[in-house]
Amino acid sequence: MGATPRPSRLDGSAGGKAVAETAFDIWLSRSLHQMFDRYKDEDIPAEWLRLIEEDRTRRRGG
Amino acid sequence: MHDEFHDQLIALLPKLRIQALALTRNRAAAEDLVQDAVANALAAQDSFTPGTNFAAWMHRILRNRFISTLRKQRETTDIDDVPMASFAVSGAHEDRMVLKELSRALGRLPTDQREALFMVVLQGLSYEEVAGATGCAVGTAKSRVFRARRQLQAWLLGEDRPMASAARTAPERPQGKRAHEANGLGDPRATV
Protein backbone atom coordinates (compact mmCIF):
# COMPACT_ATOMS: atom_id res chain seq x y z
CA MET A 1 0.00 0.00 0.00
CA GLY A 2 1.15 3.49 -0.66
CA ALA A 3 1.38 6.47 1.61
CA THR A 4 -1.59 7.67 3.59
CA PRO A 5 -1.84 11.40 3.15
CA ARG A 6 -3.88 13.29 5.68
CA PRO A 7 -7.43 13.81 4.45
CA SER A 8 -7.94 17.24 2.99
CA ARG A 9 -10.33 19.86 4.30
CA LEU A 10 -13.20 21.25 2.34
CA ASP A 11 -11.94 23.71 -0.20
CA GLY A 12 -14.71 26.23 0.37
CA SER A 13 -15.54 26.67 -3.28
CA ALA A 14 -19.03 26.36 -4.69
CA GLY A 15 -19.84 22.68 -4.78
CA GLY A 16 -16.60 21.97 -3.00
CA LYS A 17 -18.29 20.29 -0.06
CA ALA A 18 -19.63 17.40 -2.09
CA VAL A 19 -16.30 16.91 -3.83
CA ALA A 20 -14.35 17.04 -0.57
CA GLU A 21 -16.68 14.57 1.15
CA THR A 22 -16.24 12.15 -1.68
CA ALA A 23 -12.49 12.54 -1.43
CA PHE A 24 -12.66 11.84 2.30
CA ASP A 25 -14.71 8.71 1.70
CA ILE A 26 -12.13 7.47 -0.78
CA TRP A 27 -9.33 8.22 1.67
CA LEU A 28 -11.25 6.46 4.46
CA SER A 29 -11.85 3.37 2.37
CA ARG A 30 -8.20 3.15 1.37
CA SER A 31 -7.03 3.65 4.94
CA LEU A 32 -9.37 1.03 6.35
CA HIS A 33 -8.14 -1.47 3.81
CA GLN A 34 -4.57 -0.58 4.70
CA MET A 35 -5.29 -1.16 8.37
CA PHE A 36 -7.35 -4.31 8.21
CA ASP A 37 -6.75 -6.23 4.99
CA ARG A 38 -3.80 -8.04 6.46
CA TYR A 39 -6.16 -9.90 8.76
CA LYS A 40 -7.99 -11.33 5.79
CA ASP A 41 -4.72 -12.70 4.44
CA GLU A 42 -3.57 -14.33 7.66
CA ASP A 43 -3.72 -18.08 8.06
CA ILE A 44 -6.99 -19.36 9.42
CA PRO A 45 -6.51 -20.79 12.92
CA ALA A 46 -6.33 -24.56 12.80
CA GLU A 47 -8.89 -24.84 15.57
CA TRP A 48 -11.57 -23.17 13.43
CA LEU A 49 -10.90 -25.53 10.53
CA ARG A 50 -10.84 -28.52 12.85
CA LEU A 51 -14.27 -27.63 14.20
CA ILE A 52 -15.70 -27.35 10.70
CA GLU A 53 -14.05 -30.48 9.28
CA GLU A 54 -15.02 -32.59 12.27
CA ASP A 55 -18.62 -31.51 11.84
CA ARG A 56 -18.47 -32.24 8.12
CA THR A 57 -17.10 -35.72 8.77
CA ARG A 58 -19.70 -36.41 11.44
CA ARG A 59 -22.55 -35.39 9.17
CA ARG A 60 -21.25 -37.44 6.27
CA GLY A 61 -21.03 -40.46 8.53
CA GLY A 62 -24.41 -39.84 10.11
CA MET B 1 -25.85 -29.90 0.91
CA HIS B 2 -23.86 -30.11 4.12
CA ASP B 3 -20.59 -29.98 2.18
CA GLU B 4 -21.71 -26.74 0.62
CA PHE B 5 -22.52 -25.30 4.03
CA HIS B 6 -19.09 -26.15 5.37
CA ASP B 7 -17.34 -24.83 2.26
CA GLN B 8 -19.25 -21.56 2.50
CA LEU B 9 -18.34 -21.24 6.15
CA ILE B 10 -14.63 -21.77 5.50
CA ALA B 11 -14.67 -19.25 2.66
CA LEU B 12 -16.29 -16.66 4.89
CA LEU B 13 -13.86 -17.01 7.81
CA PRO B 14 -11.47 -14.20 6.76
CA LYS B 15 -14.36 -11.75 6.52
CA LEU B 16 -15.80 -12.91 9.82
CA ARG B 17 -12.45 -12.18 11.41
CA ILE B 18 -12.56 -8.60 10.15
CA GLN B 19 -16.13 -8.17 11.32
CA ALA B 20 -15.24 -9.54 14.72
CA LEU B 21 -12.47 -6.95 14.94
CA ALA B 22 -14.95 -4.25 14.05
CA LEU B 23 -17.15 -5.35 16.91
CA THR B 24 -14.61 -6.14 19.60
CA ARG B 25 -11.71 -3.82 18.72
CA ASN B 26 -9.53 -6.42 20.33
CA ARG B 27 -7.68 -9.10 18.46
CA ALA B 28 -7.86 -11.88 21.05
CA ALA B 29 -11.53 -11.20 21.68
CA ALA B 30 -12.16 -11.22 17.94
CA GLU B 31 -10.57 -14.64 17.56
CA ASP B 32 -12.65 -16.01 20.42
CA LEU B 33 -15.77 -14.47 18.93
CA VAL B 34 -15.26 -16.07 15.53
CA GLN B 35 -14.60 -19.47 17.05
CA ASP B 36 -17.73 -19.25 19.18
CA ALA B 37 -19.77 -18.10 16.18
CA VAL B 38 -18.46 -21.01 14.11
CA ALA B 39 -19.52 -23.43 16.84
CA ASN B 40 -22.96 -21.80 17.00
CA ALA B 41 -23.35 -21.92 13.23
CA LEU B 42 -22.45 -25.59 13.06
CA ALA B 43 -24.95 -26.37 15.78
CA ALA B 44 -27.64 -24.35 14.01
CA GLN B 45 -26.89 -25.24 10.39
CA ASP B 46 -30.17 -27.08 9.91
CA SER B 47 -31.93 -23.75 10.41
CA PHE B 48 -30.13 -22.25 7.42
CA THR B 49 -32.18 -22.32 4.23
CA PRO B 50 -29.97 -23.21 1.24
CA GLY B 51 -30.11 -20.60 -1.46
CA THR B 52 -30.61 -17.75 0.97
CA ASN B 53 -27.88 -15.31 1.93
CA PHE B 54 -25.33 -17.32 3.86
CA ALA B 55 -23.10 -14.32 4.65
CA ALA B 56 -25.98 -12.39 6.19
CA TRP B 57 -27.06 -15.44 8.20
CA MET B 58 -23.53 -15.96 9.48
CA HIS B 59 -23.02 -12.30 10.33
CA ARG B 60 -26.18 -12.39 12.38
CA ILE B 61 -24.83 -15.30 14.37
CA LEU B 62 -21.53 -13.51 14.92
CA ARG B 63 -23.32 -10.37 15.99
CA ASN B 64 -25.68 -12.11 18.37
CA ARG B 65 -22.80 -13.97 19.90
CA PHE B 66 -21.00 -10.67 20.42
CA ILE B 67 -24.04 -9.15 22.08
CA SER B 68 -24.41 -12.15 24.33
CA THR B 69 -20.76 -12.04 25.33
CA LEU B 70 -20.83 -8.29 25.83
CA ARG B 71 -23.74 -8.58 28.22
CA LYS B 72 -21.78 -11.03 30.33
CA GLN B 73 -18.63 -8.93 30.31
CA ARG B 74 -20.08 -5.45 30.47
CA GLU B 75 -19.12 -4.86 34.05
CA THR B 76 -15.54 -6.01 33.78
CA THR B 77 -14.32 -5.13 30.32
CA ASP B 78 -14.17 -2.08 28.15
CA ILE B 79 -13.63 -2.31 24.45
CA ASP B 80 -9.98 -1.82 23.65
CA ASP B 81 -8.45 -0.19 20.67
CA VAL B 82 -6.86 -2.59 18.27
CA PRO B 83 -3.18 -2.04 19.10
CA MET B 84 -1.49 -0.03 16.41
CA ALA B 85 1.49 -2.34 16.66
CA SER B 86 -0.71 -5.00 15.14
CA PHE B 87 -1.19 -3.03 11.97
CA ALA B 88 1.29 -3.92 9.27
CA VAL B 89 1.63 -0.34 8.21
CA SER B 90 4.68 0.77 6.37
CA GLY B 91 5.55 4.25 5.32
CA ALA B 92 6.44 7.53 6.87
CA HIS B 93 5.86 8.57 10.43
CA GLU B 94 3.15 10.97 9.29
CA ASP B 95 1.26 8.14 7.63
CA ARG B 96 1.34 6.06 10.78
CA MET B 97 0.18 8.97 12.87
CA VAL B 98 -2.78 9.57 10.59
CA LEU B 99 -3.78 5.93 10.78
CA LYS B 100 -3.38 6.01 14.53
CA GLU B 101 -5.74 8.96 14.67
CA LEU B 102 -8.17 7.05 12.49
CA SER B 103 -7.90 4.00 14.75
CA ARG B 104 -8.74 6.09 17.80
CA ALA B 105 -11.63 7.71 15.99
CA LEU B 106 -12.99 4.31 14.95
CA GLY B 107 -12.94 3.28 18.58
CA ARG B 108 -15.08 6.27 19.48
CA LEU B 109 -17.79 5.45 16.95
CA PRO B 110 -20.93 3.72 18.18
CA THR B 111 -20.56 0.00 17.59
CA ASP B 112 -23.47 -0.19 15.17
CA GLN B 113 -21.96 2.52 12.98
CA ARG B 114 -18.49 0.96 12.98
CA GLU B 115 -20.00 -2.42 12.21
CA ALA B 116 -22.02 -1.11 9.26
CA LEU B 117 -19.07 0.89 7.94
CA PHE B 118 -16.80 -2.16 7.99
CA MET B 119 -19.42 -4.34 6.33
CA VAL B 120 -19.78 -1.90 3.45
CA VAL B 121 -16.20 -0.70 3.04
CA LEU B 122 -14.15 -3.77 3.94
CA GLN B 123 -16.49 -6.57 3.00
CA GLY B 124 -18.28 -5.02 0.09
CA LEU B 125 -21.74 -5.87 1.42
CA SER B 126 -24.72 -4.01 0.04
CA TYR B 127 -26.93 -1.92 2.30
CA GLU B 128 -29.60 -4.59 1.90
CA GLU B 129 -27.16 -7.24 3.14
CA VAL B 130 -26.08 -5.06 6.06
CA ALA B 131 -29.73 -4.57 6.98
CA GLY B 132 -30.35 -8.31 6.77
CA ALA B 133 -27.32 -9.12 8.90
CA THR B 134 -27.99 -6.54 11.58
CA GLY B 135 -31.77 -6.74 11.73
CA CYS B 136 -32.48 -3.15 10.76
CA ALA B 137 -34.17 -1.35 7.89
CA VAL B 138 -32.16 -0.61 4.76
CA GLY B 139 -32.52 3.10 5.45
CA THR B 140 -31.08 2.60 8.90
CA ALA B 141 -28.10 0.74 7.46
CA LYS B 142 -27.48 3.58 5.02
CA SER B 143 -27.81 6.12 7.79
CA ARG B 144 -25.32 4.32 10.02
CA VAL B 145 -22.68 4.25 7.30
CA PHE B 146 -23.36 7.86 6.42
CA ARG B 147 -23.11 8.98 10.03
CA ALA B 148 -19.94 6.99 10.58
CA ARG B 149 -18.26 8.62 7.59
CA ARG B 150 -19.31 12.11 8.52
CA GLN B 151 -18.39 11.68 12.17
CA LEU B 152 -14.94 10.39 11.28
CA GLN B 153 -14.51 13.26 8.86
CA ALA B 154 -15.48 15.72 11.56
CA TRP B 155 -13.11 14.26 14.13
CA LEU B 156 -10.17 13.89 11.77
CA LEU B 157 -10.58 17.28 10.16
CA GLY B 158 -11.57 19.10 13.33
CA GLU B 159 -14.98 20.15 12.11
CA ASP B 160 -17.67 21.00 14.63
CA ARG B 161 -21.18 19.70 15.04
CA PRO B 162 -21.00 17.03 12.33
CA MET B 163 -24.04 15.11 13.47
CA ALA B 164 -26.30 18.13 13.17
CA SER B 165 -25.84 18.17 9.42
CA ALA B 166 -25.82 14.38 9.31
CA ALA B 167 -29.15 14.25 11.05
CA ARG B 168 -30.61 16.72 8.57
CA THR B 169 -29.33 14.72 5.64
CA ALA B 170 -29.94 11.14 6.68
CA PRO B 171 -32.16 10.74 9.71
CA GLU B 172 -32.13 7.32 11.29
CA ARG B 173 -35.58 5.99 11.85
CA PRO B 174 -36.20 4.23 15.15
CA GLN B 175 -37.09 0.56 14.81
CA GLY B 176 -38.84 0.25 18.13
CA LYS B 177 -35.75 -1.00 19.89
CA ARG B 178 -34.38 2.27 21.12
CA ALA B 179 -33.33 1.01 24.49
CA HIS B 180 -30.97 -1.47 22.94
CA GLU B 181 -29.98 0.92 20.19
CA ALA B 182 -28.64 3.14 22.92
CA ASN B 183 -25.92 0.55 23.36
CA GLY B 184 -25.09 0.86 19.69
CA LEU B 185 -25.93 -2.75 19.09
CA GLY B 186 -29.18 -2.65 17.20
CA ASP B 187 -31.78 -5.35 17.37
CA PRO B 188 -30.89 -7.95 19.96
CA ARG B 189 -33.07 -10.71 18.53
CA ALA B 190 -31.30 -14.06 18.57
CA THR B 191 -31.25 -16.21 15.46
CA VAL B 192 -29.85 -19.40 16.89
From TrEMBL, chain B:
Keywords carried by this UniProt record: Sigma factor, Transcription, Transcription regulation
Residues annotated as domain RNA polymerase sigma factor 70 region 4 type: 100-152
InterPro entries named in the record: RNA_pol_sigma-70-like, RNA_pol_sigma-70_dom, RNA_pol_sigma70_r2, RNA_pol_sigma70_r4_t2, RNA_pol_sigma_r2, RNA_pol_sigma_r3/r4-like, WH-like_DNA-bd_sf
Annotated ranges, domain RNA polymerase sigma-70 region: 12-74
Region (Disordered): 163-192
Basic and acidic residues composition bias: residue spans: 170-181
CDD domains xrefs: Sigma70_r4 (cd06171)
Segments crossing the lipid bilayer: none
Domain of life per record: Bacteria
GO molecular function, one term: DNA binding
Gene3D superfamilies to which the protein is assigned, alphabetical: 1.10.1740.10, Winged helix-like DNA-binding domain superfamily/Winged helix DNA-binding domain
GO BP: any one term: DNA-templated transcription initiation
Family indicated by similarity: Belongs to the sigma-70 factor family. ECF subfamily.
Protein's name in the database: RNA polymerase sigma factor
Species for this entry: Caldovatus sediminis
